[in-house]
Amino acid sequence: MAGLLASYGVVVLAPEHRDGSVPRTYIGGPKGRPVDYKAISHVQSKEVEDARDEQLRIRLWELGLLNEALLKIDNGEEVSNVLSKDHKGNFSMFASGLDVHTPGKISWAGHSFGAATVFQFV
Question: CB of 15 within 8 A of CB of 50?
Fold first, then answer.
């Protein structure tokens, strides 16, 4: 779906969440700090609710960063690359071209727990 939308010129962001819901990811790139998978039961309990709430907090923070970055890029502001503190992303070609300040121009979607995340985010 993301590829199809992008082929029509839609800016698509597909974040890799760092909440322990994927087999393994890294904060700071491949040489950064690993985040391992956290198995969470599907049987409802206080511990499961607490773990899902923590995942949701991380995901909402990540989406907030993405939204903030899109707005900065469209405004022509500098955005730091999260993989390298020394490297500044050059997104100047997108300045004033993303049309993200018009209400309804940013769409958020998710699958499964991603849908619950988006529901909370918007």
Answer: no
Helix or strand (DSSP H, E) at 120: helix 113-121
Distance between CA atoms of 6 and 3, rounded to whole angstroms? Answer: 5
C-alpha dihedral sign at 61, 63, 64, 70: positive
- What pLDDT, in 10s, does the model give residues 7-39? 988 888 888 888 999 888 888 777 888 999 999
- 81 SS3 class: coil
Q: How many C-beta atoms lie closer than 10 Å to residue 12's C-beta?
A: 14
Which of 8, 9, 43, 12 shows the shortest CA–CA distance to 107? 12
In angstroms, the CA 17 to CA 63 distance is 10
How far apart (Å, rounded) are the C-alpha atoms in residues 52 and 20?
A: 10
